[in-house]
Design goal:
The structure is a single chain. The protein is of the alpha/beta class. It has a single domain, classed as Vaccinia Virus protein VP39 (Rossmann fold), CATH 3.40.50. Strands 1, 2, 3, 4, 5, 8, 9 and 10 form an 8-stranded mixed sheet that branches. α5 crosses α6. The longest helix is centred in the N-terminal third of the chain and has 14 residues. The chain starts with a helix and ends with a strand.
Length: 234
């Protein structure tokens, strides 16, 4: 019984948490298929959005669930050298992004490899303290409330006071929360199943619990209908 319950816990949250990737399978740009597609469209979208919010080349910027650099290639080009921080669960994806995305663009010289970390439990390195802003694109859509709380709490230890963090969710109303909801591009979201949807009250609760506040939830043209939550660290 204990073994069976452990196996259930390992697969309960989402399809990515325990995905084992073989780096040989990530050759020839196949790495792009692991992060949801729409590579150019969504990569450009998140970068343009952050620039519209005032992202400066001098900012120290964290990309949570950076994967294989769908957005990272834009951010690294824009930011000053060593100002990009990429965090993911899967090291193979980061390495594939460096090899197939960043190196061909001639941007490896701007990367501090100590600023690219793969770890479980949102274990952001303490030496990263002082980050100005950050983003999590299509991450919270695959996480339970408790995992989002852990992410926000640990982020608070490495980001400056008053720093802003931007994260996408599938946003629903209180009356919609208990039932599956359809979104753009054929996506259906659920209360207790990946992909998850959340209300403004959910985000306010998590923020208050972890040392943040929700400044806004806004639309930004995501092709699958995700909304952007703007968190500010207290």
């Amino acid at each position: 019984m204990a073994a069976r319950m452990k196996a259930q816990r390992l697969t309960m949250e989402n399809q990515y948490t325990h995905k084992d990737l073989d780096i040989d399978k990530l050759k020839d740009s196949n790495h792009r298929a692991f992060v949801g597609g729409m590579w150019d469209e969504i990569g450009q979208l998140q970068f343009d959005y952050m620039v519209s919010k005032g992202l400066s080349p001098s900012d120290r910027f964290i990309d949570v669930a950076c994967g294989s650099m769908r957005g990272g290639r834009f951010f690294i080009r824009h930011l000053e050298a060593q100002h990009y921080y990429g965090f993911d669960l899967v090291r193979d994806l980061i390495d594939a992004g460096l090899k197939h995305e960043i190196e061909p663009l001639g941007l490896l010289g701007k990367v501090n490899f100590d600023n690219l970390v793969a770890a479980e439990g949102f274990a952001f390195p303490p030496q990263w303290r002082g980050i100005d802003s950050g983003i999590a694109l299509s991450l919270f859509t695959h996480l339970t409330l408790n995992s989002i709380a852990l992410c926000l709490s640990n982020l608070g230890a490495v980001m400056k006071d008053k720093a802003k963090f931007y994260a996408t969710i599938f946003h629903v109303t209180e009356s919609q929360q208990m039932t599956p909801q359809d979104h753009l591009d054929g996506i259906t979201t659920f209360l207790c199943q990946d992909p998850y949807h959340y209300t403004r009250a959910d985000m306010d609760y998590l923020a208050a619990k972890t040392g943040w506040r929700v400044e806004a939830i806004e639309e930004f043209g995501h092709p699958r209908g995700q909304s952007m939550v703007v968190f500010q660290k207290l």
